[in-house]
Amino acid sequence: MYNKSYTSQKVNYTEYLLYFILLIIYGIYFVTCNILKAVRLSGWITTYKAEWAGKRVELVNPRNTSQVCSGCGQMVRKDLSERTHSCPFCSLVLDRDQNAAINILRLGLQSAAQNA
Q1: Radius of gyration (Cα) for the chain, nearest Å?
Q2: Alpha carbon separation from 5 to 8, 12, 14 (Å, rounded)
Q3: Global pTM?
Q4: N-terminal to C-terminal alpha carbon distance within the chain
Q5: Which of 40, 55, 70 finishes a domain?
Q6: Same-domain check for residues 51 and 62
Q7: Is residue 33 located within the same domain as residue 74?
Q8: pLDDT of residue 4
Q9: Residue 1 sits in which domain range?
Q10: Backbone angles phi, psi at 71, to 5 degrees
Q11: Which residues lie across from 68 on neighbouring strands?
């Protein structure tokens, strides 16, 4: 009789562990979905506000924008932990985010010129 109650307790712990894991997965899914919804909503709001002001939004692919040098256009590979863009080709030194912003602006202007 002692063994039977011990095994039933073990099953309960397994069930609790399963429920706990499911709650963690659901929580991660819920947070991820809310972040994605917020990003989509912010994109929609930006487009709406631009149209309201008589402007337009150009969507660009942000791939490698922080690794391409905004000064000379050369690819400068770096880890995510590196926060400074330092180009060995043209000696440009910028914050990584500022370099990416300049590249995204350039891509947006090129796209606008092609679509106009």
Answers
A1: 25
A2: 5, 11, 14
A3: 0.62
A4: 83
A5: 55
A6: no
A7: no
A8: 54
A9: 1-55
A10: -85, -50
A11: 75
Q: Which of 29, 55, 81 is the last residue of a domain?
A: 55
Q: Where are the alpha helices (DSSP H) in the chain?
A: 2-52, 96-115
Q: What is the amino acid identity at position 36? A: L
Q: What does the pLDDT read at residue 1? A: 47
User: Residue 104 corresponds to which tokens in the numbers above?
Assistant: 């995204």
- pLDDT (tens digit, 0 to 9) for every residue of the chain, 116 residues total? 455 555 555 555 666 666 666 666 666 666 667 777 777 777 778 888 888 888 888 888 889 999 999 999 999 999 989 999 999 999 999 999 999 999 999 998 998 888 86
Place of tokens 């000696």: 91
Q: List, in order, residues 6 or more apart from 23 with CB less than 8 Å away.
A: none
Calpha distance 64→74 (Å, rounded): 11
- Residue 21 has which token pair? 């894991």
